[in-house]
Amino acid sequence: MKKRLRVFVVVGLFMFSAVLVEPISVSAIMSPSELEASDIDYYDPNAAGGVNCSLDPSNLGIGKDYAGREILNAEQIKQIGENQSVYETAAKEAKIPWQMLAVVHLRETRLKTVNPDNGQGIYQNYGAKAGEYPPGKVSDAEFLKQTKWAANFLVRKSNDPEALANADPDAIKYVFFGYNGMAAAYAAQATALGFTNPADGSPYVMNKADEIRDPGVNPTTWGQIKRDGGPIEYPANGDHGAFVVYASLAGISASGCDSGTSSSNVTGTTREKIVQIAKQELEAWDLNNGVDDYKKYTDGGVGNWCAWFASWVYEEAGVPLVDGSRSQVASVNSGLIPRAKKLGLYHSAGSSYVPQAGDLVVYAAHVNILVVGGSGFDTIGGNEGTSSFIYTDIKQNGGYWKPLALGYIEPPGTSE
């Protein structure tokens, strides 16, 4: 599936523009025991417009809402950063985006690593046994244990774990919707506003994602269930929705996912964009454990894909090496090198050229991307392993590759 920039919500949702709301105030969620039974399949992974998201931890907390307001305050960003390694460890085992755990932690106990007095722990395990979560500060090991529980709990709420592992926006919305309670009233609210995904009608999930769902702008058409078993009341509260917070942490738009054109999520010089995009793809690959995701870079083609990957990253950074509507290059020796030489971008490893971050490093029938230049020489490549050339994964490797380099290709438009 081609993954291009989308300006609309996936799976044919109502069109709107958005980024992400003022510092978050935390509200209690509905108990999972109140979930309504539903046979609705809210997510269609084969629907037109579906995309996967590449997540970049360096985007932590940069998101703003459609009105330009910050989502996370400085203290929240600091605390999430301190907890991030724990979120990532648990998320990798469960195959979910780590940002989802940060959102639930924020919602449940304001990012504290303290068991509250109700005995349900940091993530509010309503099925907890007496004494399972004694009140008070928890150890690092206990924090990780509870975070792993939360990760697995979120997976159990998913109707499509593979889509969730791919960070599909609708799959993530579905989980947050299920976590809070799939109220029929919210499904009706989504329909009334023109959305096809019931999760888009839930303030817990999508509050302040856009003008339509901003209670300050639409106090009579965007409401929330504020009492257990009660009706929708207007307006909704002032928090932003779980998916809106997630999108801020993930560095994507609350209205969809921009990873189809990764350069839409990165800033800086051309070389900096190339490095950031390569790191995003590595992050997404590790999160999903591969699973034939390399076809993303080949437009469905099958085979050795290092050149496909490298040229895909260059195109996403806005500096394609080959003209055309889709300019991936399938071969190193008959594709990348001749094209680079024609453009005057190829430098032999024996020349005086000093390789820089963002360059392509060419070997015998292999290529990867330099993410640290000079003496550092650190690379990210597709279709490689950690020693020799093991054609399996996206990997980041250190200076081991430098003695094998035959030449370097610099990005178009970056020559001095």
Structure in words:
This protein is of the alpha+beta class and 416 residues long. The protein has two domains: 32-259, no CATH class; 274-409, no CATH class. 32% of the residues lie in helices and 9% in strands. The protein has helices at 74-94, 98-109, 140-156, 161-165, 169-180, 184-192, 203-206, 242-250, 270-288, 295-298, 306-316, 332-342; strands at 114-115, 136-137, 224-225, 232-233, 346-348, 360-363, 366-372, 378-384, 393-397, 407-409. Strands 5-10-6-7-8-9 form a six-stranded antiparallel sheet. Strands 1-2 form a two-stranded antiparallel ribbon. It has a two-stranded antiparallel sheet with strand order 3-4. A hairpin with a 5-residue loop joins strand 7 and strand 8 (378-384). Helix 1 packs across helix 3 (140-156) and helix 2 crosses helix 8. It is elongated. The chain starts with 73 loop residues before the first helix and ends in a 7-residue tail after the last strand. Residues 1-62 and 255-264 have low confidence and may be disordered.
Fill in the keyword field for this structure.
single chain, 416 residues, alpha+beta, 12 helices, 10 strands, 9% strand, disordered N terminus
Average pLDDT works out at: 77
Strand order of the largest sheet: 5-10-6-7-8-9
The major β-sheet equals: 6 strands, antiparallel
Number of helices: 12
The string of secondary-structure elements, in order, is HHEEHHHHHEEHHHHHEEEEEE
Rounded to the nearest angstrom, the distance between the terminal CA atoms is 37 Å
Structural class: alpha+beta
Beta-strand portion reads 5-15%
- Given the C-alpha coordinates, what overall shape results? elongated
What's the number of extended β-strand segments? 10
Tell me the number of structural domains: 2
Rg of Cα set: 23 Å
Range of helix content: 25-40%
Low-confidence stretches: 1-62, 255-264
Give the oligomeric state of the chains in this entry, treating copies of one chain as homo and distinct chains as hetero. Answer: single chain
